[in-house]
Write the structure tokens for this entry.
Amino acid sequence: MTRKEQKEMRRKQIMFKALELFIYKGFSETKISDIAESLGISTGLLFHYYESKEKLYEELVLMGAEQSKHSEQVEYDDPIDYFTNFINMLFTAAKQQPWVYQMFMLMEQARRPNMPENIRNIALSVNKVDFAADIIRKGQENGSIKDGDPVALSFAFWCSVQGVMQLHLATPEYPLPKAEWLTDIIRK
């Protein structure tokens, strides 16, 4: 393994350990020394990779914002299929990479008013509700999605997805719901 590959591997280890600690302890309660200690490295070495706790958190939120773009690339024939396909893709990714559950929690935490403004703005820039509302309108036109305010329906859908992801993180022994059960929130 090259030195560059080792450095990238260490950087990812730091990110994923920090993600875990930020989720369970919160941004304010997590100290750089906590992250370093949990990895068995010095605080100085951690600062070699990230200049501050805020920069590390910001990088995680940027990663979450980037990952959220995958939902806009879901292929579908009928608008209702978009939602089912997205959930199936999300649950498959989360089973393969459990940090996906943690990222949902982190992105929600990053939206809170007490977060640093630059981080909060990144998190708030992820707006799945309006994107999905446009798909819902198309589904309402073709009769596959129930009548009602498309934004409110989208909001209800995304809240259910967020809730499932957060609760599954806390209680992984419970099975995930079928995608169709979540899409039934909007299905006609």
